[in-house]
Amino acid sequence: MLRALAVAILFSLAMPAHAADGYRVVHVYPHDASAFTQGLVFVNGHLYESTGLTGRSSLRMDELESGKVLQRYAVPDKYFAEGLTNWGSTLIQLTWQTHTAFVYDRFSFRVMKSFSYDGEGWGLTQDGHRLILSDGSATLRFLDPESFKVEGRITVRDHGVAVKELNELEYVRGEIYANVWHSNRIARISPATGEVLGWIDLTGIIPASELSSDEAVLNGIAYDAKTDRLFVTGKLWPKIFEIQVVRGGK
């Protein structure tokens, strides 16, 4: 845990002062503690998850209330699965360093096609018009959801300072939410300018005693737009939390 603590301290020192919002836990759900969560999305009452690690990557449909895996596709061993989003009746899943994304039928998990992109794949979401991709840098790319060509880019900055290691993404009420790797904060980002609009500080949401390794870090955001519910989890976390953001702190 020392590495994670050191990263958190350096992160807090490097970032400009920006009032952080707190959270209130609404509900706690069970989650597979062996799932190396890389992407999370809630669609039409179902929770879909992309899990990583070479040889262990998967696409899953989880039952929120029980944590049971209802449907699972084993990603070929050569790929380390990353971010996940939905588009129409499909799911789109990135991979880390193999420059390949897979497009699945959302109901059968059948691989319909794949496409290539430059650089690494970390997080993925969509705003109803474009896909939004993170690659571990401070840059987010916007892709056409049909051709997968890059249509634009933004650099994410907080008071002029670039925010790097943007990871799992979710589009929430006109903003891009982004985990920052090895931190307990979620950045709220303007999709028009890249400016950080605020932070959500999730420090303390799960006891350290429930985490199995230094890599069991916050990395999963899903938004249920129909009922305005926000879910968060992490890699190797035994729980998923439904939260309400508390403006200005806890």
Mean pLDDT, all residues: 92
Outline: globular
Percent of residues in helices comes to under 10%
The strand count comes to: 22
What spatial order of strands do you see in the largest sheet? 16-17-18-19-1-22-21-20
* Low-pLDDT sequence parts: 1-16
Element pattern in H and E: HEEEEEEEEEEEEEEEEEEEEEE
Compute the separation of the termini in Å: 25 Å
Q: Which percent range describes the beta-strand content?
A: over 45%
Rg computed from alpha carbons, rounded to a whole number of angstroms: 17 Å
Query: Could you give a short account of the major beta sheet?
Result: 8 strands, mixed
> Which structural class do the helices and strands define?
mainly beta
Helix count equals 1
Question: What's this model, at a glance?
Answer:
This protein is mainly beta.
Write the layout of secondary structure elements.
Blueprint: H1 2-14, E1 20-30, E2 37-43, E3 46-51, E4 58-62, E5 69-74, E6 81-87, E7 90-95, E8 100-105, E9 111-116, E10 124-126, E11 131-134, E12 139-143, E13 150-155, E14 157-158, E15 161-162, E16 166-172, E17 175-180, E18 185-189, E19 196-201, E20 218-224, E21 229-234, E22 239-246
Descriptors for this entry?
globular; 51% strand; 250 residues; four-stranded antiparallel β-sheet; eight-stranded mixed β-sheet; mainly beta
